[in-house]
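Troubleshooting: if your tokenizer reports a length mismatch, compare your output against this known-good record of 209 residues.
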Amino acid sequence: MRPTGTRGEWKSHFWLPVTLDHAVVESAVAAFVEARPDATALPRDALHVSLSRYFVAAAHEIEPLAQRAKLRLRNMPAFVVACSPTLLELPSEDGLCTFGALAIAQGRHEINAMIDDLDDVLATFGKPVYYAQRILHVSVCRWPGRVVDAVTHAPVDWPQGVPTSCRATRVLGRAGHVEFEIRLFDGSSGSILVAEGNVAHGETRQGVA
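Known-good structure output:
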């Protein structure tokens, strides 16, 4: 992670990594590319839900901030995150591009709880908290230029019979040069959504990673 340009200050972030079926991601990206031919897919191993805005951490704040975040999230249980077929266009924080994203349909309560916890931690260090209007999403592609406000598109047709969700078992953070993982308690059970057209149906499965 590179410094921001100010001596001893580093760009930092917290996020929830997600793993989505290849067919689900490809169908969403294809829908965006049809409308925006200059859209490029994001790496599948980089898909995530942001739990904070980007913020700047001074060198002396990095270790205590990371430890405080771990303490606040250490008792959070694992949970299922499912995406909606609703497509979103969202401006990047730096205003340089627009992201094509999938809205979060399941797991919103848990994600909002983690954002609340991290907001408390960040406020303690005088850092910006999450946006007042929370649009929980997973970005799948991006293109140059920005939209002024969020844009919602008609739902994409999911490939039938593929999972549209995953089990969230960890939070990742980067505070300057320190990268860390917070494992969530995982009972290895939960409702995994499977696509059927534009409708997602719940199934209970055991041992889902």
